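Chain A, query sequence.
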Amino acid sequence: MAQKPKPLDETASARAWWGKELRNWRTTRKMSTSEVGAKVHLSATMIERIEKNERKCDAALASLLDDAVEAGGALRRLWRLVEIEAAEAAAHADKSTGKVDQGASERPIEGMLGLNPHALSERSQPNMERRAFFSLGGVAALAPTAFIDLLPSSGPHALPKDVRSEDIQQVLTAADTLAGWDNLYGGGGIVGSSSMGLFIWAKGLLATKYPSELKADLYTAVGRLSVVMGASAFDAYAHHDATELLRFGTWCAEQGNNWHLRAASLNWRARHEIWCGRPDEGLTYAENGLLRSDRLTPREQAMLHNARARAWAKMRRPDEVLVAIDQSDRIFARARDGEDEPWMAYYDEAQHHGDTGHAAFDIALMPGQSHQLATSRLETAIDGHTDAYVRSRALSGTKLATLTMAAGDPHQAVAIANRALTEVGKLRSKRAVTDMEELSSASARYARRPEVAELRSRIAATVRA
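Chain A, predicted structure.
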């Protein structure tokens, strides 16, 4: 008779917790240690020792084991906590000989996000409570000073002793790279898997010595990275993380006195609230972003008016939607090249028409409303988006197909939808999936048509992938 496995104590450490979760996934899949070992070229004994935390594992092996037991990324995500715990241990060891340098102002960062840094301190909590803290959503529970003391002070991820302009440029480059990946692959793709280490390091710079003349640039860079990650988390439906990252981005913008970054962060906060079914809160963020609009460029103002239009649309207020779109159009017409921050490069003619088209889409589906404005805007957006903005083109294409289907032209709708569906298939975007599901619902009344039935089958296969 097989011996019952020895119970594992997951409270001992994050690594021990990870080992127990590996065993849980293995037993759920009804796999033996030999079967798992064969998939990663290790012996059954070695797998058992990893589960018991008697043999060290690394990130690469953790990823292979996640695939072996078909954990769907759960073990990869949990491995981040193992790495954070190791960083914490390194920080503890270093602090026995000295303290971490503080920023140029020598003052701790205030809790401007309405959080209590002491209550959220990982070190003040026992293992089980700390595990629960991380389980809430990773960065979702971060106060402004959280994680800074978990960074190692030696090794490849160490913070510099003093912040230089080159360090700030690295953060901006990381933000631009992640934003590009997000537009190409969606928030559930490479961005979410690669950004946490970047964020922890960049955030740690705020507690490092820096010349006063670099303060504005430093907070702008870290805030920009936080906003990019927040927008990506929104696309992946990591809504709690998105909320906190976007809030932190706004706070950084205000610390750096950067009205342009503040406008960008509040635009994303508005869009996130609207998507989550809270259009009134979204409208508040958009109008807050327009405070002192004299300090914003025409593109930034137009962007925020579009957020207002989308909020009004969700509240089923078509007259207000059309007024906001008209305001946005008139302001956007004044935009000139070279006056915006680099991150506003995405907001071109195609993006403007896509944003207004999405707002017009919501009211076009209301009884007695015309489809013409939404259709023309979405068509312009689709034609104008380059291959660098696959997701934006796919989202507009899906909306146009849904609108065309609702207008009673399933043949044309299928042609539009198939192009959009091909692009959605390249993404890891929960927003794109939701829009496709709505398109499938809109096509139900034509389901007996062969081309529509084939489209619905393709949508189902893409959504499951």
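The CA atoms of residues 122 and 130 lie 6 Å apart. The chain has 20 helices and no strands.
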